[in-house]
Amino acid sequence: MTTLPSLYTSHGSPMTALQPGSVRERLAELAADLPRPQAIVMATAHWLSPAPQVGGAAQPDTVHDFFGFPAELYQIRYPAPGAPALAERVLGLLGQAGLDATLDPQHGLDHGAWVPLRLLYPDADIPVVPISIQPERDPAHHLAVGRALASLRGEGVLVIGSGSITHNLGDLRMGYGAEREAPYVRPFITWVEERLAAGDVDALLDYRRQAPFAQRAHPTDEHLLPLFVALGAAGTDPRARRIDAGIDHGILAMDIYRFG
Fold first, then answer.
1. Chain segment 168-200, per-residue pLDDT in tens
2. What are the backbone dihedrals phi and psi of residue 213, each rounded to the nearest 5 degrees, phi first?
3. Residues whose CB falls within 8 Å of the CB of residue 127, separated by 6 or more in sequence, listed in order
4. I need a surface site. Which of 13, 143, 157, 173 has the fewest CB within 10 A?
5. Four-way CATH pick for 6-259: 3.40.50.970, 3.40.830.10, 3.40.50.300, 3.10.20.90
6. Does pTM top 0.85 for this prediction?
7. H or E segment and range at residue 115
């Protein structure tokens, strides 16, 4: 069986589902270039827990975890099946790595999962197992989560981290947009790209101190932490290819990374 890469995707605003811009083309191109996965394990920035949790629902609900958006957005469903047996396997792999994880038999797919998945696999016919991230834990913890899952890639499982390569929603009120990007966005995404290209994992783990404008790009960590899950899942082949999907609202860089 072909070993799949791992992916990191920036999911942007929930409105990406209705106004996907260039991310639609980039994710469609990526899906066409990948071997079809047997299943997907997805770490999402919108499922937060103190310790790792794994979604074991046989038919995960589509969760509309936002408010104040157009009614059309709340009508969207992504009816992909779950994979309870795979969820148990994920739980076992995390346990073997010394990571205290639990199963949530009811957890659905939040917009950090279903927004990019609708663009990658619109038929919703590939089973999905969501996993949580731990905002109180550091990037090294999330790298370890990804490394625990690396063997799944050889079993036809696509491991995806979903967040946003820059995420400062407080800057929405600053008047940035298509004609005026926030000044920290490109220096930050360039630094990440260069460190990944160099294989400088130590610098990436220390991004809070080393990356330019880290605090502006990420006032909190949760949207970057899935990047480390995807990087860890790449295992011994962490070669990174950046896919540029534009910048939304002048602040949300929509970078996608393919590892391995």
1. 998 988 988 888 999 999 999 999 999 999 999
2. 60, 30
3. 38, 39, 40, 80, 81, 82, 83, 86
4. 173
5. 3.40.830.10
6. yes
7. helix 111-120
